[in-house]
Amino acid sequence: MIKVLIVDDEQMERDGLEMILNRHFELEISQARNGRVAIDMCEQLKPDLIFMDIQMPGMSGLEAIEQLHRAYPGTTFILVTAFAKFEYAQQAMKLGVHDYIVKPSKVSEIVKIVEAALDKIRAEKKSSEESKRYQSTIEKAMAVFETDVVTQLLFDHVHEVHLNQLVDLLHIPITQDKFVMNLLIPEEAKGAYSAVKEVVRSTGSGWTGAMNGRQVPIIVFRNSGESFRHQAITMAKRILSLRKPDHDAWFIGIGDVYGEIERIKQSYQESLIATRNYHQPVKYQFYSDMPALTLDFYSQSYKAYEQKFDGLLRQEQWQLLTEEVNESIDQYERENRDIMQTQKQVAEILWLISSILSDMGVEVDMPVYAVQVNGYKQLRAETSYMIDRMKYAHQAHSQNTDGDMIEQIKHYIIEHAHEDLSLEIISKEAGLSPIYVSKLFKEKLGINYISFLTECRLEKAKKLMRDSEKSMKEIAIEIGYHDPNYFSKVFKKAYRLSPTAYRSKTVT
């Protein structure tokens, strides 16, 4: 119900106006005896319409309106004056006064003025509600876009049409410097993912990626007003505050800061490395604070190592892979290497294998030795056990063939193209990691999933343009685009014609 406040220093005038309003309208009516009381009442009442007498002791009606208009700009005002020629009209117009009533006025004239004011208020309320619904829908869509942008930036599955437009829609400026944080969440705490996204979003300086196994990547844009370490630690502590007391396995690795957007993948790799030893009292680790690694993760020899393991894993040559690792252990033993140093180097090799598997979509636990080994025999046994665990995870993942899986994913996208689809949603439906779904599209179809989704949506849009009289806005919403302008940009990029020009060309 619309709320009304009548402000007049004369009780009889207030009661008379209230009686007229009650006879002709259904309103929630309150009274105030002067402008000062009205200002105090509005803080609690929040009226939609205020009838304000001009001549009142202490504070004039116009002075009261000036203060109320600043505090509640959406409120509608009707002035009540005893002057037939309203000399305050110009000042009142500046304050947004809707109309005025001259005392005394015919009931019919008052009713006519009030009807017009109520129509205005209802129209504004309807517009405001539609705007809120639209904004809510956009915000939900933004959450979907956000995970996809992070995936595209970190895993090089960039789609040239969408990336810049999605970045614009997210309303978080890409600053010159940026870094990546990688959060490890234990299996039993995966339900906290949404809360993590909300914490990151509330900072206004980060994007959260899709959960990949236990890992949640977060791209953070540098705040110029604070140091890198302070910003990273503050965000890490806010995220870690979400964990329950018995969930000790939360951990955050923090990569170095880089300027070029292309180097964000390097910060991501560093954030992963920083999570290798997550059994620490302090639940975050800067890559730059870690002891020197035995493997140079950016050297040519490491790249060769990575390529060899990648080939063996994709061919499921587990026996050969195990022999490669054991051969390294044998070499270290022949060189009389310190057993602790050797264990550290083998742990880095196992971490490399697990990261390749993770990129293939296989969810594996982080390979961490449960104990400090006391000899090479024990090291071989512990290493074989961890390789076997990764092998079983890979075999379980490989039960579905890639060919069957891509067809299932394609069918799901076609059926749900009008919804807010994301890598996260599709991967959950397929039982795969978001990264693997993205790679599967690139490898099997030569395009990424956004291209396929866009193609499905635009084909339906063209059909609707030919076979219906729906507006472009209605078509955009029906095929899954909440922003008609964004739909128009995507359509024009694909067909070199605006939607309107395409419809005009095909219909004629």
Task: Describe the model.
This protein is of the alpha/beta class and 508 residues long. It folds into four domains: 3-128, Rossmann fold (3-Layer(aba) Sandwich); 172-289, Reverse transcriptase/Diguanylate cyclase domain (Alpha-Beta Plaits); 300-349 and 360-390, no CATH class; 402-507, Arc Repressor Mutant, subunit A, CATH 1.10.10.60. It has helices spanning 11-24, 35-45, 61-71, 89-94, 107-155, 163-170, 193-203, 228-240, 264-273, 300-314, 318-334, 339-359, 376-397, 402-416, 423-430, 434-445, 449-467, 472-479, 484-495, 499-507; strands at residues 3-7, 28-32, 49-53, 76-81, 97-102, 178-184, 206-208, 215-221, 251-254, 284-286. The chain has a five-stranded parallel beta sheet, sandwiched between helices. It has a five-stranded mixed beta sheet with strand order 7-8-6-9-10, with helices on both faces. Strand 3 (49-53), helix 3 and strand 4 form a beta-alpha-beta unit. Helix 11 (318-334) runs antiparallel to helix 13 (376-397). The longest helix has 49 residues, at 107-155. It is elongated, with a radius of gyration of 32 Å. The protein starts with a strand and ends with a helix.
Which stretches are low in confidence, meaning pLDDT under 50 for 5 or more residues running? 158-162
- Name the structural class: alpha/beta
> What is the class of the largest domain in the CATH system?
Alpha Beta
- Work out the helix count: 20
Instruction: Report mean pLDDT, rounded to a whole number.
Output: 83
How big a fraction of the residues is strand? 5-15%
The CATH topology of the largest domain is given as: Rossmann fold
Strand order of the largest sheet: 2-1-3-4-5
GO biological process, one term: phosphorelay signal transduction system
Organism: Jeotgalibacillus alimentarius
Protein name: AraC family transcriptional regulator
Domain Response regulatory: 3-118
